[in-house]
Amino acid sequence: MIPSSAVTKQTSGFLERRGGMCVVQLLSLVLQTSLDVLFSRQQKEEGDRTICFFLLKIVITLNICITTTMKMLTVSLLVCAIMALTRAADVPTGEPDLNSGPEAVPTGEPDLNSGPEGNSDIAEVAPSCPGNWTRYNDSCFFYVPSHMTWADAEKHCQTLGGNLASVHSFDEQHAIQSMIQRLTLGFPETWLGGYDATQEGTWFWSDGTDFSYTFWATGEPDDSRDADCLLMNYGDEEKFGDQPCDQLKPSACGKKL
Ligand SMILES: [Ca+2]
Ligand SMILES: [Ca+2]
Fold first, then answer.
1. Helices 44-125 and 4-39: crossing angle, nearest 10°?
2. Which residues have CB atoms below 5 A from the ion given as ligand 2?
3. Which listed ligand is nearest to 228 at the C-alpha?
C-alpha cells in the first residue's frame, strides 16, 4: 500500500507544478498583451479591444487553473478518503492478530492457574494446624506452660482462636499427654476445658462439645474444696481429677481445623 504521506507529497507537488504553470501562462499573457498594446497604441480602439481580450484571457486562464486545481483537490481528497477507509479496515484485522497472541497467553494462564487452584482446593480439604500446634485427627492442640487459673487459661486459649482442650477418646487424651511429655519431659498437671461450676456433678467442655468420654483417676471427681475444674495428668495415675478453678496450672488449648 502507498503511504498516505507519499500521496499527499505527490499531490502537493503536482499542485505546486500546476500553480507554477498557471503563473507562467499568466505572465505569458501579460507579456503578449503588453506587446500588443505597445504595438497598437497608435490605434486607441484596437488597444482597448486588446486590453479587453487580455482581461478575458486572464479570466479564462484563471478559471482553467482554478477548475483544474479544484478537480485535483477533489481527486486528492477522494484518494485520501479511500486510503483512510482502507487503513481503517486494515487496522481491526491487524489488531486481533496482535491480540490473538496475548490472548493465547491468558488462555494458557488459566491452565497454569488451574494447577494451583486445584492445589488450594486440596489444601482446603486437608488444612494444617498452625505452627507449634500438635494435630490429632481434625483437632489442634497447644501446650501453655504459664501457670494460670482455669478462667485465665480459657481466656488465653480464646485469644489463640480456641478453647481449653476437650477430650473425646483415650487416643486423643494420649496425644495431648504425649505432646506435653515431649515439651516438658514430664507429666505436669494441666488444665483442660472440663468444668462443673454451673451445676455440681454435671460436666461440660468449654468448647461446647459433648462431655461423654471420662478418664477420671480413682476417687475423682470428689468436688474437694469445691473443685469444679478439670486437670489432666492428675495424681499418680496421671488421669483426670477435679481441682479448685483458682489454682495456677499450665494448660492445654485446642481448636478444630
Ligand atoms: Ca465440682
Ligand atoms: Ca478432686
1. 170
2. 222, 224, 227, 241-242
3. 1
